[in-house]
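Hi R.,

Here's the chain you asked about this morning:
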Amino acid sequence: MYNDKLLKVLLETTVKSKFFWWLLIFSFVCLIAIIPNAMAFDLSSPRSTIHSFVGSLNQYNYKQAGLCVRNANPKIIKQLVDLAKARKNDEVSKYIINKIDITIDDANNTATATVALSPDQSISHLQLVRQDDKWKIVPVEFHPANIRNPLSYIASLLASLQPIKINREHEDVAYCQTNLKQLSLTVSMFEQDNNNIYSFTNKTWIESLKPYMTAAQRPILICPDDKSPSQHSNGNKTSYSFNDNLTNCSGDSIKDPSKTVMLYEGTNTKLNFRHNGKANVAFADGYVKLISSQEAQSLRWTP
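And here is the predicted structure, written out as tokens:
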């Protein structure tokens, strides 16, 4: 009897104390923060991998998103992590999964998925593969046309720019191509934020893209084979130019993006064939190619 009364008094005293309520609030907050994060990341099935991938993207956790992608490139992920710091308050890019349709091929340990997303009502088609009991997204070859297939496009960002196998003789050519590939990515990100419009000129393209480039990335403006890069606006030096014919043009309106020049080595629509008589060109579809002076004759400069 005495013990029951004592227990009752202790409980009443504890409930009335500020310490009790602060402890309760703190425990509740920790529960909210810890449990969802612990449960959210799961690669045990195609469906859970897709949810984990989208959840990581919405948190701008590209390092974690890379774990959902087969052969994700750590160097590219690090650059995207730096970029995320500047875009972390961009609520527009948050994805909501409305529907997932999945077909699993157990014999080949593969799966295909169609994912309906909001807020832009886009559809992503994904290929997944099972490795060591974990399902991972298979990146497609990088192609800005995949912007309309956003999850596949982002997976390609995390993995498609794998280090190019090169020898010393072709090292500068390969680095130059990598420069143009990464610049094409920044153009694509700019387009997404600007209604798919190339709303800059050759004089302003570098300044327009700078918010999408970290300081560490800006050396990509100069080809290592270029001993005297051109002086651009605002003191920028570069080996590349933007095709002014695309200014204020919609990416969707380009008739033949695979042959239409977007970025190139040279100035005033004249290529600089600095790589043993060849020059690198980034096309409007994001593909980068080393071309000869003869091949340059078939390039499209108008959309």
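One quick note: The chain is about 35% helix and 20% strand.

Cheers,
M.
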